[in-house]
Design goal:
single chain, mainly alpha, 0% strand
C-alpha cells in the first residue's frame, strides 16, 4: 500500500488550502500513482533530475529520500548527478552531491 502524502496540508493547509489539496491529492495522489505509465522509481528519477536542474535544492532531501525508498541506489544517484553536471553546471552538481551524501550516509551497496 502506498503511503499517502500529507505534506501540503501539514505545511500549507491553513495558508494555501487549494495548493495543499493539489499537492497532496493530485500530484502525489493521482500522478504518482499512475504506475502503468512510469514506476515510482522512474518518477523519482525524473523528479530528482528536474529539481537538481532547476536548482530547487530545498525540495531535494524529501525527493532524494523518496527516490531511495523507491529503489534508486547511491551509485545511481551519484551517476545521475555526474551526468547532469555537464549539462546544468558544476555548482548545481556540487550542491546536489552535498544533499545526496546526507541522504545516503551510512548506506552500503552490495
Amino acid at each position: 500500500m502506498v503511503k499517502r502524502v500529507t505534506a501540503g496540508r501539514d505545511q500549507l493547509g491553513k495558508f494555501a488550502p487549494k495548493f495543499a489539496e493539489l499537492n497532496d491529492d493530485v500530484l502525489f495522489g493521482e500522478i504518482w500513482s499512475r504506475e502503468e505509465a512510469f514506476s515510482a522509481r522512474d518518477r523519482s528519477l525524473i523528479t530528482v533530475t528536474a529539481l537538481i536542474s532547476s536548482g530547487a535544492f530545498e525540495q531535494l532531501p524529501f525527493h532524494m529520500n523518496k527516490a531511495k525508498a523507491n529503489g534508486l541506489t547511491q551509485t545511481e544517484m551519484a551517476e545521475v548527478i555526474t551526468q547532469l553536471a555537464f549539462y546544468i553546471g558544476w555548482p548545481k552538481a556540487w550542491s546536489a552531491f552535498s544533499i545526496a551524501q546526507q541522504v545516503f550516509e551510512g548506506d552500503e551497496e552490495k
